[in-house]
Design brief:
By secondary structure, the chain is α+β, with helices and mostly antiparallel strands. Helices cover 58% and strands 13% of the residues.
Amino acid sequence: MPEAERRVNVELMGKTFTIKGDADPEYMATVAGYVNNKIAEMRKLTSSDQVKMLLLTALNLADELFQARKGIQVSPADAQQIEKRTQALLKMLETGIVGQYSQTTDE
């Protein structure tokens, strides 16, 4: 018999969301907290444009995932290199795809 679906309320970017899943609610809250912290880190690196900030967060988390799948531990020197790559991605986003993004409404 499958486990009952569990729910937990989490706060991301100042908004409350209900997450549903099979995992322990404490674990789901921990994961959401980690994502929220990553968003806060990226907010420091970019302008107030939420699209850029969320794209950078997604890229950063994907990089962490790929590195973890390779079994690579990130040293402080590697962390600095990742930060440099993130800055380069930010510049690319500012002049590329996201540079073409124009907000027409406050949705």
